[in-house]
Amino acid sequence: MHRTKIFFPLLALLLLGAACTPQVQRRFLSADELGVRPQSFELAAEPRSPSRGPCYEQDNYRLDTLHPDYSPMRYLRINIHWMNSADSSQNVPEAVATAYAQRLVFAMNYALGKNNKMWLPVDNTTPVQPILFRYVLTGRPGDPTDDGIYYHYDDELYYYVHYRKKDSNLYSRDVFDKYAVQQDTVMNMFLMPHQPDSVASRTYQAGPVGVALRNCLKVAAQWKEDYAANRESYWNYRGVINHEVGHLLNLGHAWTGSDGCADTPVHKNPCWSRDAGPGCDTLTSNNVMDYNSLQLAWTPDQLARVYQCFANESNLQRKFLEPRWCERDPAADITIRDTVDWSCMRDLYGNLTIAPGGQLTIRCRTSVPAGGKITIQPGGTLILAGGRLHQACGGTWQGIEVEKVNDLEGRLELRDNASVADTNRL
How many helices (H) does the chain have, and how many strands (E)? Predict the structure, then answer.
């Protein structure tokens, strides 16, 4: 009986509290509230301004260091082609090529996961930021036996001859035209030996070297000889391959001053390594887009340039990415709690919530995953200032949900010809 006397007053307090708690009302905004116009109106509408605006400014793609969780990891689809002579004498044996290629990709990704501080200029304060992409070996869809690693025997196309040499073939696409697979969605990498006659010449440099040609690249090295000497020689090539990938991702040589990156210093590229000779301890670069023995440092501007390529729907580089933004990943949901400005094209991987007191301004194309939604909580504000909300994979998303408690409601503002498309409520 004593316990019963305590229980009933407690229950009464709980019920009273529940009755006093404001109820949250939720609704999705209508087509009219989203500024969606009838088709006949659209046909007669004035064309948009041709101004490119902030969405095309490289600086806006720098990592937001206050909100790094807003920037997801991207996965770049690649495949690897080993080229050998018909008698199989000029490259790593096919029996070990698959395992070696897999370890090579591991080494390349390891380098991306360990961005280094810049060596130049001496005593610099250039920030070290994470590199937000990784390589994924990708075979042909629907073929479980295709691991994205291929081996070809071809006496006419197996070798590489560098520039300024007789019979140079570094700019030839013949080997791509014959053997490349899924060129529109997968970056093809060809691992080739140097031409034997060239190697025999005392003036020919047969070290690791490569060339990037739009959607494919070649890397030449003494693969067979290096493998025979060291089974872990794949570590030696992570830098040169990442360098060539950098070219395919719109990066130029960093030392020139014309690469579009203010944080890559101009220099004469005088030293291959810090122990290469007098003065090299302070003259050597380690940037991925310079010529050096490491190629392990990426600057914030270089990364912004890469991310801008990934975000632009018209760029070939974007098509190399696994489109993980198509379906919602609950672990990638984002909540905006302060004042944030998105002046870059963006793909959301999860739902977006504007919390009370939060304000988000979207100025550019922003994709919401299929089935996803944007929620504006009471006291939160979403401003579409010329931005476009859509679903980048041809699907639909739920739309914009506003919450209301008493007289306080989430708020949406539409400015500068902002638009909302692809919701299943339009």
Answer: 10, 20
Beta-bridged to residue 404, according to DSSP, are 25, 409
Q: How far apart are CA 367 and CA 397, in angstroms?
A: 9
Residues 6+ apart with CB under 8 A from 311: 61, 318, 344, 345, 346, 347, 365
pLDDT band at 19 (very low <50, low <70, confident <90, very high): low
Query: Is 151 found in the same domain as 297?
Result: yes
pLDDT greater than 80 at residue 252: yes
* Structural contact between residues 239 and 295, judged by C-beta atoms closer than 8 angstroms: yes
* Residue 346 Cα distances to 285, 364, 387, 389, angstroms: 32, 8, 10, 10
CATH number of the domain within which 225 lies: 3.40.390
Query: Does residue 225 sit within a domain?
Result: yes
Task: Kindly report the length of the chain.
Answer: 426
Query: What would the pLDDT profile of 270-280 be if each residue is shown by its tens digit?
Result: 999 999 999 99
Q: What's the burial of 397, exposed, middle or buried (CB within 10 Å: 0-12/13-18/19+)?
A: buried
| Distance, CA of 376 to CA of 399 (rounded, Å) | 11
Report residue 213 as tokens. Answer: 């040609």
Q: What percent of the chain has pLDDT over 90?
A: 82
Q: Is 234 exposed, middle or buried (0-12, 13-18, 19+ CB in 10 A)?
A: buried
Supply the pLDDT for residue 2.
45
- Which residues have CB under 8 Å from 114's CB, separation 6+? 296
Q: What is the pLDDT of residue 426?
A: 67
At 382, list the tokens.
């979403």
The total of structural domains in the chain comes to: 2
Q: Could you give the angle at the alpha carbon of 116 between the alpha carbons of 110 and 117, nearest 5°?
A: 175
Residue 214 CA to residue 407 CA, distance in Å, equals 56
Check residue 48 and give its pLDDT: 52
Residues spanned by the domain of 31: 22-57+326-420
Q: What's the token pair of residue 196?
A: 């034997």
Residue 111: exposure state from Cβ atoms within 10 A (0-12, 13-18, ≥19)? buried
Contact 420, 387 (CB under 8 A): no
Lowest mean pLDDT among 40-54, 104-118, 296-310, 389-403: 40-54
pLDDT class of 260 with cuts at 50, 70, 90: very high
What is the pLDDT, as a whole number, of residue 410?
A: 96
Residue 189 and residue 124 share a domain:
yes
Four-residue CA torsion sign, 370, 53, 51, 256 = negative
